[in-house]
Specification:
Shape of chain B: elongated
Largest sheet of chain B: 2 strands, antiparallel
Order of helices and strands of chain B: HEEHEEHH
Strand order of the largest sheet of chain B: 1-2
Number of strands of chain B: 4
Structural class of chain B: alpha+beta
Oligomer: heterodimer
Order of helices and strands of chain A: HHHHHHHHHHHHHHHHH
Number of helices of chain A: 17
Largest interface: A-B, 89 and 85 residues
Strand content of chain B: 5-15%
Chain lengths: ~500, ~200
């Protein structure tokens, strides 16, 4: 009897979801490309919540090591935490590009059906990969495990079969972008974006083979991780930001495109050889000290340029814009990118300090603020652009109904991540000094540093600020579902200069 | 506002600059990659041949370079058995694949890369925690039942039982021994290896 009741409930829920989905697909405010974008954004938000949840579990294990021991061990939680992050950011980027593709090219997306198919294939694959991570977790030391369970390489743990699927889906995405621009019109943004996507997809191939020699393994592994995160992703968000500044503030195309080219020159000029800062200690030759140290020290420069550019443009336009939450998140992006990726990265990028900080909580501190500041923020800005349009291009300016919600979510997320970053930085200082400099990196030294009250306190503060971040995330989720629903005013019209 | 735009602020100038800077950097990276890969092939000066697991390995401060360097000493066959290059590579490969399949890198760091929940494994083979000569047996024992042989140094953090077989455990130990002989430019600094106190 109880079983029947559950079945009925599930059937009712499924019917409700189907009808909501039908209403969404009939939404006359969105174009085909934008509907596809909303698919990606929805999955991205769900994965963002998963990232927060598994981050919390991993954070708690630092304080209570027995928590979920041999059920969901730290390595599983941490893997899901960082993989959910990588994937939701990619979903956000793909969604953002589909969002503006038709507007920028002037024609509908060429292979929309393929794009939709690719979305469902990718999402199905991600679900299977996560289930295997959680339920199977580890395998035997052979190729079958690397092909079907997990590849055991940080950030790109996805098993090989999934790698191939990811490349296939990226090719569909690339085809849609290139072919749509080719059929419509090209622009500076279109050109940079298309070439950047070639590099982004091509680089993934560098992470798709096995090597016993761990120096060779890590050499190519960094090609994927660094050249994605510190080069091609940065340029991709540069394109996304360029388009959004034109839309939100009405900045002239010539100005954003000139800035985009400046950023590409500085980003690739510093970021490509800045890869060398990962080659100090993995067995690679000493010349990487000089090359990696010098070029990676230049990496913050384009990020400063981005701050100047966006704040200057906002000021010139007296901050008049059509979507307050989106602009607020874009400003959070410029500062977060500059602080997290730029300043926090620069602090430990020179080999003279990196000898002591490499592989400590210092990296975790940098990672948290950089990924959030550079990538989470701009994706969230696009979520707000999407909900505004989906709800009939409604008003999203001052005096918005329930405006406290997006403001609180913005404040909690930013303060939460900043708080975690500082807590982890303190742990990183302590670890660098005690474990590395004083005691010399043995296992005893490692645990002496981990047991030190300064470290333990930092881990408690990290969880406190983590909870703040989660509260912000929950509020953001709620706000995206509700914002603008009761709004009857139309969005402010921005004069295109 | 109507003044002509100087060339250095023009879109065309920066477009060209972006193209040249990007392609120039990429070409340089490719050239450096060829050089680096040649220098880090197993059996070269920086990354030892897999048969180094037949030798005694230490890690000592080099006064001239002012940093720690791995040192390869006399014979000390792993598990008491001399292996030829192919056999050694096979054993290290099993170990490397095991470290990947067991997802070691999401708790530990290897060459300093990975997660920060457990100690770095770069010089794990040389860690004084394992005691003296013949400590490979202690390492295998630990990997087979990490809960029973856990030493948490008061942290209560224990490695979970990952279902590692004895063969895989021997492979992992071989991999760790081989990795400890890679020239990592002095990382980790100030590390006192097994046996170093007597020197």
């Amino acid at each position: 009897m109880a079983m029947q009741a559950y079945q009925q409930k599930a059937a009712g829920l499924a019917a409700d979801l189907r009808s909501r989905y039908a209403v969404f697909m009939a939404n006359s405010h969105l174009t085909g490309g934008q509907k596809l974008a909303v698919h990606y954004f929805t999955a991205a938000v769900v994965l963002f919540m998963a990232q927060l949840l598994f981050g919390l579990l991993a954070g708690l294990q630092f304080i209570w090591p027995g928590f979920l021991y041999e059920i969901l061990d730290f390595n599983v939680n941490r893997m899901v935490h960082i993989n959910a992050m990588v994937v939701w950011m990619l979903y956000g980027f793909i969604g953002s590009v589909y969002w503006f593709l038709e507007d920028e090219s002037g024609v509908p997306v060429v292979g929309l059906k393929w794009g939709q198919l690719a979305f469902w294939v990718l999402t199905g694959a991600v679900a299977v990969v996560v289930l295997v991570y959680l339920l199977v977790q580890v395998g035997s030391g052979n190729d079958t495990s690397l092909w079907f369970i997990n590849e055991g390489r940080e950030y790109i743990e996805a098993p090989r079969w999934a790698d191939i699927g990811i490349v296939a889906v990226m090719l569909v995405f690339f085809y849609n972008v290139a072919a749509t621009f080719a059929q419509g019109k090209w622009s500076g943004i279109a050109g940079v974006l298309t070439l950047d996507l070639v590099a982004l997809a091509g680089l993934y191939l560098a992470g798709m083979f096995y090597a016993t020699n761990i120096s060779v393994d890590q050499y190519w592994w960094w090609w994927v991780i660094h050249l994605w995160v510190e080069a091609t992703w940065e340029v991709l968000v540069g394109c996304i930001m360029a388009w959004s500044l034109m839309k939100l503030l009405g900045v002239r195309r010539q100005i954003v495109q000139t800035w985009l080219y400046i950023e590409v020159a500085l980003m690739f000029g510093s970021g490509i050889l800045g890869l060398g800062h990962h080659y100090f200690w993995i067995g690679t030759p000493e010349y990487w000290f000089t090359i990696g140290g010098f070029f990676s020290a230049l990496e913050p420069i384009p990020l400063v340029a981005m701050v100047v550019h966006s704040i200057y443009d906002s000021g010139v336009h007296n901050f008049k814009n059509s979507n307050h939450p989106a602009l607020a998140w874009i400003i959070a992006h410029t500062f977060g990118n500059f602080l997290g990726a730029g300043v926090w990265g620069f602090m430990h990028t020179l080999p003279q300090i990196n000898l002591y900080t490499h592989g400590t909580q210092w990296s975790a501190s940098h990672g948290h603020l950089a990924f959030f500041g550079a990538y989470a923020t701009i994706n969230i800005a696009f979520f707000y652009l999407a909900v505004q349009q989906a709800r009939g291009n409604c008003w999203m300016g001052g005096g918005l109904a329930d405006g406290w919600r997006w403001k609180s979510a913005l404040a909690l997320l930013n303060l939460g991540v900043m708080g975690m970053t500082v807590a982890l930085l303190i742990a990183g200082y302590e670890q660098s000094f005690i474990e590395r400099a004083v005691e010399g990196s043995t296992w005893t030294a490692y645990f002496d540093a981990q047991n030190h009250p300064w470290f333990v306190q930092a881990m408690v503060w990290r969880v406190i600020f983590g909870l703040m971040t989660i509260a912000g995330g929950g509020l953001l989720f709620w706000d995206l579902l509700a914002i603008g629903k009761t709004e009857t005013r139309k969005a402010a019209v921005i004069n295109l200069a | 506002m109507n003044e002509p735009i100087p060339f250095w602020a023009s879109e065309a100038f920066w477009k060209k600059t972006a193209i040249w800077v990007t392609s120039g950097s990429f070409v340089l990276l490719i050239l450096l990659t060829f050089d680096s890969l040649a220098k880090i092939s197993a059996g070269g000066s920086r990354v030892p041949a897999y048969s180094v697991i037949n030798k005694d390995i230490s890690y000592r401060f080099d006064k001239q370079l002012q940093r720690y360097q791995p040192v390869v000493l006399g014979d000390a066959p792993l598990f008491g058995k001399m292996l030829n290059e192919a056999e050694a590579e096979q054993l290290v490969t099993l170990g490397k694949k095991t470290t990947q399949a067991k997802n070691c890198m999401n708790c530990h760091t290897l060459l300093g890369n990975g997660a920060y929940y457990a100690p770095d494994l770069t010089k794990a083979w040389l860690d004084q925690a394992w005691g003296g000569a013949g400590h490979e047996t202690a390492m295998v024992q630990f990997l087979l039942d990490p809960e029973k042989y856990a030493r948490t140094y008061g942290s209560n953090r224990k490695m979970p039982n990952l279902g590692i077989t004895e063969e895989e455990a021997r492979g992992v130990v071989a991999f760790l021994k081989w990795m400890s002989a890679i020239d990592t430019n002095g990382f980790p600094h100030n590390f006192k290896a097994i046996g170093a106190e007597e020197e």
